[in-house]
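Example 3.2
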Amino acid sequence: MQKIQAWGAAAAGTPLAPMIIERREPGLHDVVLDVLFCGVCHSDIHQARDEWSGGVFPMVPGHEVVGRVARLGSGVTKFKVGDIAGVGCMVDSCRTCGPCKEDLEQFCQEGNAPTYNGTEMDRKTPTYGGYSSQLVVDERFALRIPAGMDPAAAAPLLCAGITTYSPLRQSGCKPGDRVGVVGLGGLGHMAVKLAASMGAQVTVLSTSSGKEADARRLGATDFVVTKDAESFQRLAGRLDLLIDTVSAPHDYNAYLGLLRPRGTMAIVGAPATASPLHPFSLILGGKRLLGSIIGGIAETQEMLDHCARHGIASDIEVIPIQKINEAYERVLKSDVRYRFVIDMASLKG
């Protein structure tokens, strides 16, 4: 085992602070990454504060990890030393169940190994995330960061990017489709960019009129303020697909009314409380309600390659690790456009 530097929470709700953790020596198929950048996801805050319960402490967050390959197990064929690679929300799965064999490791029937706040597949060894100097992962769960892609701006793609790309692909988004994006934050801004790159006409639905200029810069062709009831009347029955990124309680029925017959609403935001859903919101018009999380490894690589072809990356604010607690508070205030990324070189400062 190797001792390395990290930042994490010693217990639920405590401020993040420097700590020393242990990483395993690389096995036959393992890749050792020197972490360069790590994105800050809202779920990092939920888990570091144990708001979803069941937290494993001490906890080192971070599942949007980009690093440089420093060492390899002797059986690794996917990477070479010096390559830039990424790690997203999981570091292993059973690899043998139906979902795993279908490249849907995120739905592993044995439960995948999360990048942090969990255990390896032995169900004993704790996993620690990317707020650290190094990460060790099996090559099957490491992603190739395409040449020329800014590694800092690529980091949030490993969660926010795939979270919004996957429902677009599942729904068959194609040129000319009318796609609505509910909420323009860390997830929403990626949904706009990705849908526009697929040729869709994108409408952003936001509570804040101040985000219209940004929405259009990102690729939206229309913008509506959801506090205005007339907006819902104007859009009623017009959209092919809605990507709902909002994590605060809101009325799903109202948004389903914006879909054309057999349109789809994909939920990627996760409010803490249940939202009432009237059956007729779906029955009338034969509409579909889709839940979506991240993608499997193959789909995540597909997303990265798509982003490279279309020049897509996350809009980021780079911070040193010493500002992580301040960044958490700013995320809660929506005071970032649109993702924080930690420059992990600051870990040595």
